[in-house]
Automatic annotation (TrEMBL):
One of its GO terms (biological process) is protein transport by the Tat complex. Belongs to the TatA/E family. This is Sec-independent protein translocase protein TatA. It comes from Sphingomonas edaphi. GO terms for molecular function: protein transmembrane transporter activity. Residues 40-86 are annotated as: Disordered.
Amino acid sequence: MGGFSLWHILIFAVIVLLLFGGNRFSTMMGDVAKGLKSFKQGMADDEDKSRSQDPRQLPPQQPIDVTPRASDPVTPSPPPSDQNPR
């Protein structure tokens, strides 16, 4: 009840052919096929370009040392005050 059967699809196809005609319908499908072919060719060209270009090589980085040193004095931050104006 919720889906289309083969008869529904066939009736719909006949109505579309009557509205658009066989020649116009085949022309539209040919244009769609050309568009898909052009799209696939463009995607393949982009992929070839990305493979041919060398990715930017970044110099190897040394790990960052974040351990505190004895010469760097650490001053504690003051505690928050509870003096809110009311």
